[in-house]
Amino acid sequence: MASIRNYALIYVALILLATGKFVFFHFPEIFTYELAVGGTMILAVIKVSLIAGYFQHLKDEPRSITYLMLTAVFMVVLLTLAAGYSIQ
């Protein structure tokens, strides 16, 4: 179980990551659209990892649960890619 200090630090990190998304899209003279989308995706993965790991307490679960979740995420990505391919 994490302490209140850890939760507060993670909350601040999530706020900073959300601010990063704002910075990517509101300064087009610095970041191109492709760079902003790529950076936002990376920030989203970090945010999801923090939320799932700490606020949903998955960090303390057995490794088999982690592997099961990673397999599910991989399958969702495959289905999304297949659906995107079939639309074109």
Automatic annotation (TrEMBL):
Keywords: Cell membrane, Membrane, Transmembrane, Transmembrane helix. Its main location: membrane. One of its GO terms (cellular component) is plasma membrane. It is found in: Cell membrane. The keyword NAD does not apply. It comes from the Archaea. The keyword Transmembrane applies. It is a multi-pass membrane protein. InterPro entries: Cyt_c_oxidase_su4_prok. The chain crosses the membrane at residues 7-27, 33-55, 67-87. Signal peptide: none annotated. Coiled coil: none annotated. This is Cytochrome C oxidase subunit IV family protein.
